[in-house]
Specification:
Radius of gyration: 20 Å
Number of strands: 14
Number of domains: 2
Shape: globular
CATH architecture of the largest domain: Sandwich
Oligomer: single chain
Bound molecules: calcium ion
Number of helices: 9
CATH class of the largest domain: Mainly Beta
Order of helices and strands: HHHHEEEHHEEEEEHEEHHEEEE
Length: about 325
């Protein structure tokens, strides 16, 4: 049976929303329970963090763990391994950022993957990429029912502005509002959503193997905002069927996750309030064999806590360099 409290603690940890007391409880649970540690990695995979962790870890010829620090090209096999790993994650601003050295070592101790078969950086085959260089703004009809066009809430394609420069090319997408044209009951909306439906039926043979992994990533940024205001970004992937798309009662932003074959979400991490830096979010989903379409979801929202300020408009929030690829770990 699922332990909902444990799941909430782990999700809170991955989203960096735990209170100090909850962090203590989380660490204590991870230290003493192998089942809890195994559950941590299950949920980390859902959050798209496991592959991120794994690509930075490898095993040398002697079977020792090695952490490769990409930014410096240095590697280490000494006892500072986990400290090194955790500092790497801090730089990457991931949800693993708060894992201390000892705890990270304990967490990795439950891996059952064969050591020499651990995934390396996958080979990526692009499915779609979007930097908004054509200047074409996404449709504003909410969740799309047709393939290969972006649609969601009100947005605008813009060039550099307010001291903030596109991370790729000369244009980027500004999120303007949390509602779309004709949205029923828009009051209370606080998420600026963007979706794209991708037809993967031509890949049916590959998808049927159950080994097809889709990776989606996007970059996020915002102009300087009051410190107490909390904005978050999110990337999700959903595997859906044509039957679901044809069912207008179920193919809805509120229900698509529930009725999709499978979904993965890199849960909302906080925007860093520094316009000079872009925040990367990415997640991966292994497609069930019956998958016919992939729905990619990219969003910026106000904080999810009921105490967070929420508005229907966004004062200076941007998305750029969205990439959706097949990730091949077999090589
Ligand atoms: Ca930033």
């Amino acid at each position: 049976m699922k332990d909902l409290h444990l799941d909430q603690l782990i999700s809170g940890f991955l989203d960096d929303t735990l209170s100090p007391q909850e962090k203590v409880e989380f660490e204590s649970l991870m230290m003493r329970s192998e089942a809890a540690r195994a559950r941590f990695w299950e949920l980390a995979e859902v959050h798209g963090l496991m592959s991120q962790a794994m690509v930075n870890l490898s095993v040398d010829d002697r079977g020792d763990w090695k952490v490769e620090t990409r930014s410096t090209g240095l590697s280490t096999t000494d006892t500072s391994l986990w400290r090194e790993a955790s500092s790497l994650y801090r730089r990457r601003k991931s949800g693993v950022a708060l894992v201390g050295g000892v705890l990270l070592g304990v967490l990795f101790s439950v891996f059952s993957l064969p050591v020499r078969g651990m995934p390396q950086q996958p080979k990526l085959t692009p499915l779609t990429a979007e930097s908004f260089e054509t200047g074409i703004a996404p449709a504003v009809v909410g969740i799309p029912t047709t393939v290969d066009n972006w649609s969601g809430d009100f947005t605008n394609v813009v060039a550099s502005r307010d001291g903030l420069t596109p991370v790729d090319g000369d244009k980027m997408l500004q999120i303007l509002r949390a509602d779309y044209q004709g949205k029923p009951e828009p009051d209370g909306s606080y998420c600026g959503d963007l979706y794209r439906l991708i037809d993967v039926r031509s890949l049916a043979k590959q998808v049927a193997t159950g080994d097809t992994v889709v990776r989606a990533s996007a970059m996020f940024n915002m102009t300087a905002q009051p410190q107490h205001e909390n904005f978050r970004h999110n990337v999700s992937i959903m595997a859906v069927t044509s039957d679901l798309i044809a069912n207008e009662n179920l193919f809805d932003a509120a229900t698509i996750v529930e009725y999709s074959l499978a979904s993965a979400s890199r849960q909302s991490l906080r925007l860093d309030n520094d316009p000079q830096t872009w925040e990367l979010s990415e997640c991966e989903l292994r497609l069930p064999p019956e998958t016919e379409y992939v729905m990619v979801y990219v969003a910026i929202s106000y904080g999810h806590s009921k105490n967070d300020l929420r508005r229907i408009t966004f004062p200076g929030h941007f998305i750029d360099d969205i990439r959706v690829s097949l990730a091949d770990y077999s090589h």
